[in-house]
Amino acid sequence: MNAQAELANSPLNGLFPQRLEPIASGVNWLNRLRQDAAARVNVLSIPTSLDEDWRFTDLSPLLKHSFQPVIGKAILGLTDIGRFILPEAHQRLVFVDGQYAPELSVLTDLAPGMVISNLMDALPVHGIAVHAHLARVAQFEHAVFTALNTSLIHDAALVMLDKGQTHQPPIHLLFIATHKEAPVATTPRCLIIAAPHSQCSVIEDYVSLDDGIYFTNAVTEIIVGEGAQVRHTKLQRESPNAFHIAHCAVTLAHDSVYHSTTVSFGARLSRYDLNVVQTGEGTQSTLNGLALISGRQLADTHTSMDHAKPHGQSTQLHKCIVDGAAHAVFNGKILVREGAQLTNSSQSSRNLLLSAKARIDTKPQLEIFADDVKCAHGATVGQLDADEIFYLKSRGLSETAARNLLTYAFAAEIIDQIPVTTLVTHLRQTVLAQTQQTS
Asked: What is the pTM assigned to this prediction?
């Protein structure tokens, strides 16, 4: 049975009345992978508030819509995407409505042994390496949206570094949504493979040209080899009427380093699951995030740091700024398995409410099954400090300016960790613009 037939009786049919159909592939193992994922879609249910991991995420706004497959291809020029281009990024992969756009991508000056490519274009040469990792890290057996993405894999961002290779400029993976007459759905995919002792910085960027209604269902897999270092920045700045569900799965080998910064501004409803698994000793990971939302937006972030080996270190700082009647959710889990001695892990959830109707649900979690560890977590929810506002007003600022400045400073602690000057400047401007609009 093919993947299309497997999807015919899926519980997602209400969302996709015309069914999203995989593009035919001549690669047998990829076809089998799609079929296996489609079979899981056919039996898995859409999460509801009765599911513990989704109890704060009401998917009813998403389920009110029927999403169509993308038909045809939007024709864009560099002037259309100029505001999203990062001069610091010497390589750029661009996908428009889920379809690879070579005319907007830049893949020059690649070092020997380095691959930055559309996945389908790379399979004839790098199929063995891709087969060894694709869908092995992001498990789809019990996750319906991950299974749906996997069943439809075609165009996708592929980054591979050979052993010992260091690539300093950031690699920009840009996913652009364009306005459509009917709501559409796309399934972006990223696969990043850092071989032992390699280094790279990747920016995974979701943007919109219009305020249309659409559904982005994204999956990213990151394999950090022994002694390798990956800096991963994920930006979600989609249409305020869009829906964004994303799953990122990371594995860390011996002595590897992973640094993640996530910034979420857009979408009517967004959900981000970040799962990091330590598969070797002596790893270091930093997981930082910021959600800035207003109106009736919902932004849900679930993270899991799985310390499965000794001598692991991890730190996490997640911030939410919530205005209007918006709702932010943060669930951060640290798991220290038996035998993972000398683990050092900390987690902090700091949240700022800017209105009486804003809501935040935060749930830091620690599960420890080893005795020689150092772990801590904490959460705070509050409003802008009245004394700080008074101090700034005494220095000549209006109350509105004082509140905006303090809100910006709260967000800047996360944004300023992104190692791309142009991007930091853009995000600063976005934060200031949003705080001024809601003042």
From this structure: 0.94
